[in-house]
Specification:
This protein has 207 residues and is mainly α. 68% of the residues lie in helices and 0% in strands. The protein folds into two domains: 114 residues, Rna Polymerase Sigma Factor, Chain: A; 86 residues, Arc Repressor Mutant, subunit A (Orthogonal Bundle), CATH 1.10.10. Pfam families: Sigma70_r2 (PF04542).
Length: 207
Amino acid sequence: MKDNQENEKMIQKKVFKDISDPVIDEFIQLFQSGDRTVFPEIIERSERLLKKAVYRRFIKGYEQDDLYQEACLILVESIKKFNPSKGMSFNQFFSLSLDNHFKGLIRRNNALKRKSFKESLSLEGTLEEKGYQLMAETGSIQPEDQPIVNETMEEYIRYLSDFEKEVCLYCYLGYPFDMIADKLRCTKKQVMNAKHRCTDKYRQHFL
C-alpha cells in the first residue's frame, strides 16, 4: 500500500513538473523591449528543451539536425509571441509550441502518405474481363505504411453494398466476371455494373 502511494506521488511529480525559469522569462522581456544582447543567453537556457524536443523523435523525411533546426525556428517564433499576461511561463509556452508544431508536421506527413496511397490504390487499370484493380501490389506497400492502407480500405468498404463487397473481393482475388457471376448466381452484366459502381464510389470519395 505504501509503495503504491509513493509510486503515485512520483508519477504526479513527473507529470506536473514545473519547468518555469524566471531568469529566461526576464531575458524574454528584455529581448522584446529591444535588448538583442540577451539572445545568446536565451539560446543557452533553452538548449535543454530544444534537445528534449528532438530526442528519440522520428518524422519521416526529417533528420535529427532538421528537427533541431525546426525547434530553433519555433524558439524564435515563441520569443516574439510570448505574452506573460496569459498566465504561462516562457518555458511552458515554448514547450507547448514545440509539441503543437511537431504534431502538425506528423499530421502533414501522414496526410501526404494518405494522399499517395489513395492515388496508388486507384481502381483503374487491368483488363476489363478481370475488373478494375482494387489496390496496389502487396509487395509495393512498406510495413510501416500498412495501417494507412488498411484504414483507407476499411473506409472505402463502408460505402459498398453487400453485393458490391462480394464483387469487389472476387475481383481483387483475380476472378473473371464470368466466374464471379457463377459464384454469386447472377448475370455477368450485373457483376460488371456492380464493379463499375465500386470504381465510381472510389473515385468519388478518395480521388
